[in-house]
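Q: Hi! Curious about what CASP-like protein looks like structurally. Here's the sequence.
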Amino acid sequence: MEKSDATTIEIGETSRERKGKAPLLPGAADNAKAAAYKRGVAIFDLILRVSAAVAALAATITMGTTEQTLPFFTQFFQFQASYDDLPTFTFFVIAMSIATGYLVLSVPFSIVCIARPQVTGPRLLLILCDTLTLTLTTSAAAASAAIVYLAHNGNSDANWLAICQQFTDFCQRVSGAVVASFIAVALLIFLVMLSALALRKH
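A: Let's find out. The predicted structure is below.
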């Protein structure tokens, strides 16, 4: 009989222990769900970051290699157009090069956010640098877009002639570079929004 009573008491203690542990399960499940959500956001961040780097690199290379010489010339003049003839396009190449370098260097931090989604330090650093890079690329893209517009349409009030009728290849390449830069800008906007969303969930 004493053995039976002892056995009954042990079963009772095990039951109470299980009841005490049961309320902890929902919280653990919520934490796991939140971590999975943040990891998914971090993976999407990495994809957008690589895509933005490719777009910025394409804009840099396209603009930096743009040059056209017309097949006719005079004794004293040769008609040539190059990106470095205009300071705005030079600034564009420098700004997009900086953006490309930053986006490539930020990939390891994005990977850290995937491996450790609960850590806020790398995410804060990324949203700060992404915002600065977004400002730089937006200014370069907008300024270059204005020059491309003048190259296509000119300005009669300022007596600026459209040059794209003569320098067709030059205008096509700089237009393509500006389009690629705006794609990079759009992707950077999404990156900033993703980082803000991830930080809001902490």
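A: A fun detail: DSSP finds six helices and two strands in the chain.
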